[in-house]
Amino acid sequence: MRLRPATKDTPGPPRSLLVLGGTSEIGLATARRLIARRTRTVRLAGRPSPALESAADGLRALGADVRTVAFDALDPASHAAALGKVFADGPVDMVLLAFGIPGDQAHDEADPLAAVRVAQTNYTGAVSAALVSAAALQAQGHGSLVVLSSVAGERARREDFIYGSSKAGLDTFTQGLGDAMEGTGVHVMVVRPGAVRSRSPRATVTGRPYGPVPVPVPETTPEAVAAAIELGLRRRSETVWVPGALRLVMSALRHLPRPLYRRLLV
């Protein structure tokens, strides 16, 4: 079955969705929310696994046409072919880049190759996938590219600077890509969640608590991030913070002198 034709002039949630990182809790929460609106075709891209197939089955139970796509963030050379097949099947209204790994700071500091794997997954792989997706969206003349960044990328912290640096690079890249896509019909949106509560202790997180900050900010959930993504799509936002209070918190933390910042957060 081909993807449903996209309708450029009709407002509302996308009819077709491609999730890069098909087992991501945020990605799946977003897919469920959009399916409940009007999304009817979903492609879940990730490494073939029982978890990916289970995720697809769960979305099919909601009434969507769902297929899995073999995709490996660590193999950029394969991205054009893998994602090209999806776009060849019909227009895609939205691409959600939701893959990434948190790493283990203590372990990764002692194992440079492990640190590089975090960087290659979260930044290099994401840059490749985003450029391929943006070019395909531009070729079809419309669509949204939504990229999951993290509040961890706003300022380095001792406890997760390897992960945070990879998200900082991705965030800056996405902002620039959004500028490059201006006027092409492609909407680019970066999403900056704080610490996301996960149902599984083995699942990827997108951020970690920011300790004693000037304004107490609760952790968020995949469902809350999904709701923020939907709202951002409606508003054609370029940047979305989840929860919204993080924007003010990080504005304050970003300008703290480093000695004071270290005492608060390191």
Description:
The protein has 266 residues and is of the alpha/beta class. The protein is 45% helix and 15% strand. The protein has helices spanning 25-37, 50-60, 79-88, 105-110, 112-140, 161-181, 222-235, 246-254, 258-265, and strands at residues 16-20, 41-46, 65-70, 94-97, 143-148, 186-193, 239-242. It has a seven-stranded parallel sheet, sandwiched between helices. Strand 6, helix 7 and strand 7 (239-242) form a beta-alpha-beta unit. Helix 3 (79-88) runs parallel beside helix 5. The longest helix is centred in the middle third of the chain and has 29 residues, at 112-140. The chain is globular and about 55 Å long. The N and C termini lie far apart (52 Å).
Whole-Å distance between the termini?
Answer: 52 Å
Overall form: globular
Order of helices and strands: EHEHEHEHHEHEHEHH
Number of strands: 7
- Radius of gyration, whole Å: 18 Å
Secondary structure elements and pairings:
Blueprint: E1 16-20, H1 25-37, E2 41-46, H2 50-60, E3 65-70, H3 79-88, E4 94-97, H4 105-110, H5 112-140, E5 143-148, H6 161-181, E6 186-193, H7 222-235, E7 239-242, H8 246-254, H9 258-265
Parallel strand pairs: 1-2, 1-4, 2-3, 4-5, 5-6, 6-7
Helix pairs in contact: 1-7, 3-5, 5-6
Summarize this, please?
The chain has about 270 residues and is an alpha/beta fold. It is about 45% helix and about 15% strand.
Main traits of this protein?
alpha/beta, disordered N terminus, 9 helices, 45% helix, 266 residues, seven-stranded parallel β-sheet
